[in-house]
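Consider this today:
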Amino acid sequence: MTGIQSVAVQAARKNEFRQLRLDGVSRQFGGANALDKLSLTIERGEFIALLGPSGCGKSTALNCMAGLLPLTDGTIWLDEQRIDPLPPEKRGFGMVFQNYALFPHLSVSRNVGFGLKMRGVAGAEIDRRVAAALDTVQLQGHATKLPGQLSGGQQQRVAIARAIVIEPPLILMDEPLSNLDAKLRIEMRSEIRRIHRAQGCSTVYVTHDQDEAMAMADRVVVMKLGVVQQIGTPQEVFSRPAKLDIARFMGYRNVLPVKVAQADGSRVLVDGPGGVRLGGVAMQALDAGPAVAAIRPDEIVIGEGANAFAGTVESAEYGGREWLLQVRTAFDDLLYVRSPRNAGVGAAIMLSVPADRVLVYPAQEEAA
């Protein structure tokens, strides 16, 4: 083992590190970029979500961190030690897969302790650490069971216990909740976050579900076609998506063609169809002329207020705590509105939206 390998592995085993740094990490398949110049610094204790649709490069990024895929370009550093030349087993990271990847013929305790056994840890120490890991994931009474005797949520807890028992500096999770039903997914979100805090390590979590990313992460990395589109807190990405395609992905279903009438820094006035004028916020540099405005359905209020305009309710769907209304506006666009009350199909209503919730983007983004 080289000196670099020795230091990196020791840091991993002791969970003593300050940051993991990716510098210009790229990965090509057949000449096409699946991951293009990803640069990201993950601090100790952070929970990072890689978010985006299928094919955006998030799992490729995770596999590059794990050492399961070699880099086409770039470097990965654990503090001051470069680790991208190291094989997966020398990086000391924990991995939780989408399909659990448990050995069906081994008991829960032997599944959890498998990595320790491969590392040559003594039997008594394996027993102690396996018991502690099972306690952390709240599976104390299931040590002798086989995976097939457990529910899906319990199997996922075994997979998490196997990842944390090696005391890694970083846990990598590749869509670990996608095979669970909705109720279990919500329960496991809280469990994963609790375990993350208890372990004090860093977590990188791949998901296509924006609700998961918002609920769990300290920072969200939004990706598209192998390229990072935005990095920010859940609040920043949710409230201030940097690009129109991020806004669409985060639930901004109302996208209106407008023209920029006035621009003063980030504050803009735009003209919509039918002469409706709206105040808004410029999310990128804007010139006079065509643009697009994005508005979340839950930001539109029934009643008079800022940016008011008229409309007629065309349909109403009850969603439990709120209604999803489709409203035909006076300028003949169809808007989605989430409201705690049902205005009634055919009703003529006034709508308003705060100016700081009308996000304006360049028109070329819509064409793209």
